[in-house]
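Collaborator request, handled under Task 6.
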Amino acid sequence: MTELRDLHPSVVACLASPEALDVLPPPGHGARVCRTAPDELLLVGAAGVAAELIRETADRVGALDPDALVVDVTDGWAGFVLTGEGARRAFSYLSELELPEAGFLQGHVAHVPAKVLVEGDALVLLVPAFWEAHLRRRALADAAPAGIRRGGPS
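Structure tokens returned to the collaborator:
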């Protein structure tokens, strides 16, 4: 069974020189690092850990780049997780992006800009918050041939 579930991650943006971001140690709290541009990365963690991610990352990146900015952008993002055996097949109805075995990529999903974290049989989808209803609606309709259904929150 393939499910689309709402996800409520903490999302923190870190803007700094590319050189600082190249050597920045990964944060704790199980956060995933998504390099979105040479001078920007997003930290995606569990709900409620944004303050800890900011504190830890600001200390580390501040030592490498005193002009760095680390800010909580959680409210600007909506998250979903696509799970189950058919997750990759369902995703193929939503996007032309080629999924790696694991990792991060960005591009269009359901015709809107998205961030995608691939973790085994789970695909974490992040879209700007104002696209939340659109992505949910399009995913459930467009991927219906893949047997997708709406699941409970993650």
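The cover message to the collaborator said: "The mean pLDDT is 95. The chain is about 25% helix and 40% strand. Please let us know whether this matches your experimental observations."
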